[in-house]
Amino acid sequence: xxxxxxxxxxxxxxxxxxxxxxxxxxxxxxxxxxxxxxxxxxxxxxxxxxxxxxxxxxxxxxxxxxxxxxxxxxxxxxxxxxxxxxxxxxxxxxxxxxxxxxxxxxxxxxxxxxxxxxxxxxxxxxxxxxxxxxxxxxxxxxxxxxxxxxxxxxxxxxxxxxxxxxxxxxxxxxxxxxxxxxxxxxxxxxxxxxxxxxxxxxxxxxxxxxxxxxxxxxxxxxxxxxxxxxxxxxxxxxxxxxxxxxxxxxxxxxxxxxxxxxxxxxxxxxx
Length: 271
What we know:
It contains eleven helices and seven strands.
């Protein structure tokens, strides 16, 4: 059976669970069968009905207590345990599907898991073998665009996830409804399209003690610029139009057939 869906990735606080909740509401109104999966073993507050939960298999708290691990070490242990028991995940999902279904998978947010351990990469590779056609939706809090240094870090984090997951990826700036655009150094469109990152690094502090940091940031941005690797989609989960726009982009990225415009009339995304 072919599954399509989204791997929802992003740092803690970026709005992953809120986005998943809004997306599930939207898919249900579009009459798309949806299976909701939580693969974040540290997520103990899930604002949507969860069909499959990694915490049924392993929890961060149990790993910390049993093996005397810190939070990050426990997260790594949990993902390694999921990889060793990957058949459990496949069985859970396929047993719920009566027809071709859409998967919404809430992923762990800690960037270290994607850089220091290949468990998540191997899990995604299993998805590909099972013909689960997934794209990644990487969420970042739009508040960081007001600080050039922090936004460079957001760009690099998005790029790091792209390299490690090796699937089509859509990068998203969340909570745009909370932005004060008067405080931004450039128009918001600049941060969506990133036409020339030199303008971003020009805003970094020229203090002598920070010159090496500025030079490093400039070189990294030159590489990103050269290959046009990163752009962002704005998102306000309360906006029907923005949610539908992102869903259409995800449909293109994972291969799901495009939504017919007549199916979108009357759709309401609850807050």
